[in-house]
Specification:
Helix content: over 70%
Largest sheet: none
CATH architecture of one domain: Alpha Horseshoe
Structural class: mainly alpha
Pfam families: HEAT_2
Shape: flat
CATH class of one domain: Mainly Alpha
Number of strands: 0
InterPro entries: ARM-like (IPR011989), ARM-type_fold (IPR016024), PBS_lyase_HEAT (IPR004155)
Strand content: under 5%
Oligomer: single chain
CATH superfamily of one domain: Leucine-rich Repeat Variant
Radius of gyration: 27 Å
Distance between the termini: 22 Å
Organism: Thiospirochaeta perfilievii
GO molecular function, one term: oxidoreductase activity
Order of helices and strands: HHHHHHHHHHHHHHHHHHHHHHHHHH
Protein name: HEAT repeat domain-containing protein
Number of helices: 26
Length: 448
């Protein structure tokens, strides 16, 4: 009873505060505005909002979106919703997307783009009905539909379709784009039966590069050591960097010291894309012995994009010497702003506890400077990280004259569900001079 009474008093207080300060203007939360746009807006407004929801990875509007998906006649709007659902892995549109199976089977009129989008979406959410029925689509006369179906088979490891896929591989009449996808899908389902058919294709110098690349990918996915020799031969091709790139990516999936050494040696390759792929693999595999050469690449590689990738790989390896190097970059004056920003991004991602005192120190020191790109980037990275112990910094940000910092604070408080800030957010929702702050504060209150 006491808890109920207190809740009622709080609601009355919040309502009174919201309307007492500005009697002629009702400030609604940003989430309420979005909901109303989805419910009542014209198609162009809805599409624009969906694009923003996707970009900012915002959820919570499935009911409104599903209603549109089921009722709209605008196919481009349907595609936008399915694309958003696919990216966010939201399964609410499954029933609507499954309707396209009947359209394909009975060859009724439909857009290729819409059918493919439905299949891609069903694959992403691992729809069990779509997986069990997908074999019925492989006989379609539409190559685009067949390719989409094969991608679903590969992504969901539908091994039961191996025999059908092998028949496509051995059929001389298989169209090239389908042929390439068959090869990739056989790799995705880890078909060892396909290895003996794939090796001669990779060795055939008269074969199209796209097909040989697909074979490299497939052998890497299958992961059988029988494929290593041919992949090494492809990597040694000094005239075709695209083939080298595919071979290197495939070899990077094998776990052995020899493979790690191949990746390290590939950092000397003259083509930037080879170096980039090697760096990514070294970071993914956390190859600690690569630190020295990665440090060199981070600071001195002639390609800026390679320097950036090297910083990221060092952060992903996350050994003690890697952390020490990144902290040195962030705190020492001898490094550039760009290097400091790359360092802090990875430090916050992997070691926020370890770097947090440096973040607070930089805020206290740099917040009044006119030019503060490092601080701005640091705060932006920090508020997008789940971290419960940044309360002191959030208090400072909420009181900052810079409304962007106040907005960042609200974002971090909302992400981390820091309910102790509810009273301050109520105050901001009614008294802050910036309307966006008021809206975002209200939205945060609703989630705390």
């Amino acid at each position: 009873m006491k808890k109920t009474l207190l809740s009622l008093i709080y609601i009355i207080y919040l309502t009174c505060v919201i309307f007492s300060e500005e009697p002629n203007e009702k400030i609604v939360s940003i989430d309420q505005e979005r909901s109303e746009t989805l419910l009542y807006g014209i198609d162009s407004e809805v599409k624009e909002l969906i694009a923003k929801l996707k970009k900012d990875k915002i959820t919570g509007f499935n009911k409104e979106l599903n209603s549109i998906l089921e009722s709209t006649y605008d196919e481009s709007l349907k595609l936008a919703i399915l694309d958003y659902y696919t990216q966010m892995e939201i399964s609410d549109g499954e029933d609507e997307a499954l309707k396209v199976f009947d359209l394909i089977i009975y060859q009724e009129e439909f857009s290729d783009n819409y059918a493919i989008s439905c299949i891609d979406y069903l694959s992403e959410i691992e729809s069990k009905k779509a997986i069990s029925d997908i074999g019925s689509i492989l006989d379609s006369d539409n190559d685009k539909i067949v390719i989409a179906a094969m991608k679903l088979i590969g992504k969901n490891r539908v091994k039961s379709q191996e025999k059908t896929l092998l028949s496509y591989l051995e059929d001389d009449d298989t169209e090239e784009s389908v042929y390439v996808q068959v090869i990739k899908t056989l790799g995705s389902i880890k078909s060892k039966e396909a290895i003996k058919l794939l090796i001669p294709i990779a060795d055939d110098e008269d074969e199209e590069t796209t097909i040989r690349n697909a074979v490299c990918y497939s052998l890497g996915e299958i992961g059988d050591e029988e494929g290593i020799p041919v992949l090494k031969r492809c990597l040694g091709n000094r005239t075709n960097y695209l083939l080298r790139l595919s071979a290197l990516e495939a070899l990077g999936k094998f776990s052995s010291p020899d493979m790690d050494n191949i990746l390290i040696q590939s950092l000397r390759d003259p083509h930037w894309s080879i170096r980039e792929k090697a760096i990514e693999a070294l970071g993914d595999k956390k190859v600690t012995k690569a630190f020295d050469i990665l440090k060199y690449k981070a600071l001195k590689d002639p390609e800026t994009k390679i320097q950036k990738k090297a910083f990221y790989a060092i952060g992903d390896i996350d050994s003690e010497e890697c952390r020490d190097f990144l902290k040195e970059v962030y705190t020492e004056k001898s490094y550039s702003d760009t290097q400091k920003i790359l360092a802090i991004e990875k430090l916050i991602e992997h070691n926020v506890d370890w770097i947090y005192p440096s973040i607070e120190e930089r805020y206290n020191k740099d917040r009044l400077e006119k030019r503060k790109p490092i601080l701005d980037a640091t705060i932006k990275f920090f508020v997008n990280k789940e971290y419960k112990f940044g309360v002191d910094l959030y208090n400072k940000l909420l009181a900052d004259d810079n409304y962007i910092y106040r907005l960042y604070a609200i974002q971090g408080i909302r992400l981390n569900k820091l309910s102790e800030f509810k009273e301050k957010l109520v105050t901001l929702s009614t008294t802050d001079k910036n309307k966006n702050i008021k809206k975002h504060a209200l939205s945060a209150i609703e989630e705390l």
